[in-house]
Amino acid sequence: MISMKAKYAIHALVCMASRPPETSFVAWKIAQVENIPQKFLEEILLDLRKEGILRSKTGKSGGYFLQVAPANVKLTHIFQAINDPLVTNARLNSGDRFNADRQDLIDPIRARLAAAQNRVLESITLADLVQIRQEQLMQTLNSLDFQI
What we know:
Shape: globular
Radius of gyration: 19 Å
Oligomer: single chain
Strand order of the largest sheet: 1-2
CATH superfamily: Winged helix-like DNA-binding domain superfamily/Winged helix DNA-binding domain
Structural class: mainly alpha
Distance between the termini: 44 Å
CATH architecture: Orthogonal Bundle
Number of domains: 1
CATH class: Mainly Alpha
């Protein structure tokens, strides 16, 4: 399951990547546009900056900027930046009802799930997500009935 922190990070980055390069962003504005709690977003943006996905600048024209081109930011990089366990853990809710022998049978399944999950996350970039958002917006606009 994708955590709220990961969802917020993805939404904030898609918001930023949807604008022209070198556009600066302030946390409160992203929080407002994407409906993300501002304090939580500020922590996420700091994590993304520390990982090198974003850079920041102080002053009148300051804010956060994308440091890496959207086509070069993979979902795995985002999850790693915010220390989200999704990248490293494919979890099966096997519970404590199984004994150790049965648990050993689950380990290869868990390993395969983790590998498959990581392949998917490696294959999706921030640019892909921007394209998906644009397609969703177009579908929404096309579904509106503009007839009077």
